[in-house]
Design a protein that fits this description.
The protein has about 270 residues and is α/β, with parallel strands linked by helices. The protein is built from ten helices and twelve strands. The strands form four sheets. Strands 2-1-3-4-5-10 form a six-stranded parallel β-sheet, with helices on both faces. Helix 3 runs parallel beside helix 4. The relative contact order is 0.15. The mean pLDDT is about 95.
Length: about 270
């Protein structure tokens, strides 16, 4: 793709994903040239190819959303490659991270808290954050939570549908708490941050509700026209699984920057 010389340009990795699709459709980017190369065109794990292609495109900004949950090279090395390439061409770099870089605790986490991952994915995303900060110190690292949508399917909706259709034996924990965020709200924040070079370092952007997985599933089931009482519930504490329990992000800094997200009830009402 050839960029217009009179327009800002945004390179998006992971553009075919849930958040990437919403970002590509975001009204906030109407004045931008956008490109979201598929992985066969831009393998983020290939440092030389990334450097060459980013140097050729010379985007104004890069939104790095691509990941493969079980592939450390994509998560860590891929993030470092994209950040390094962005720094070399002077592109604004927006890196997507996760609340799972924390272990979970009763109090909300701020951007200043030490990272304490306890699952493999969290460890990988924490390592990716460190790489990005090292090679592109002016980047913004967006930590978010469970992403859902209303105009397309998302993993939380798919889980509910699969359980209610009898295709899954998954149970929804009453004591595993997250801050669900609508994909459109998160996409709007990423779009805004692509043009805000004054905002750097980690930034928490998630929904204002601290909801259990059971609460989230119930809201989605009701929104989809199902009876929430049919959902099987369980306790993370009694499951024996090792993963964060009460995981809440303090998003007050983002709110002061005008990047507040809707509550889940508000988003589901449309």
């Amino acid at each position: 793709m050839r960029w217009s010389r009179r327009r800002r340009s945004l390179l998006v990795t992971g553009g075919s994903g849930l958040l990437g699709g919403h970002l590509m459709r975001s009204p906030a980017l109407a004045s931008w040239d956008l490109v979201a190369p598929p992985s066969r065109m831009l393998d983020v794990r290939d440092a030389d190819a990334v450097a060459e292609q980013v140097r050729s495109w010379k985007p104004t900004a890069i939104a790095h959303l691509a990941y493969r949950r079980d592939d450390p090279r994509t998560i860590v090395q891929g993030s470092a490659n994209m950040a390094r390439a962005a720094a070399k061409v002077g592109a604004r770099f927006v890196h997507l991270s996760t609340d799972l870089v924390f272990a979970g605790r009763p109090a909300p986490y701020t951007e200043h808290d030490e990272l304490t991952p306890i699952i493999d994915y969290g460890h990988r995303k924490a390592a990716a954050e460190a790489e990005v900060a090292s090679v592109c110190p002016d980047a913004v690292v967006v930590r978010t939570s469970l992403i859902y949508a209303t105009d397309t399917s998302s993993p939380p909706q798919a889980d509910v549908e699969a359980v209610l259709a009898g295709r899954s034996s998954m149970r929804f924990f009453t004591d595993e708490v997250r801050c669900p965020v609508h994909a459109a709200d998160l996409a709007a924040a990423v779009a805004e941050l692509a043009d805000r070079r004054d905002i750097t370092g980690p930034l928490h952007v998630a929904g204002p509700d601290a909801l259990s997985r059971a609460d989230i599933a119930a809201r989605l089931a009701r929104w989809m026209g199902h009876d929430p009482s049919r959902l099987p519930l369980a306790s993370l504490a009694e499951s024996g699984l090792v993963r964060p329990g009460h995981l809440v992000l303090d998003c007050s800094r983002a709110a002061t920057l005008g990047l507040a997200c809707r509550s889940m009830d508000e988003a589901l009402r449309g």
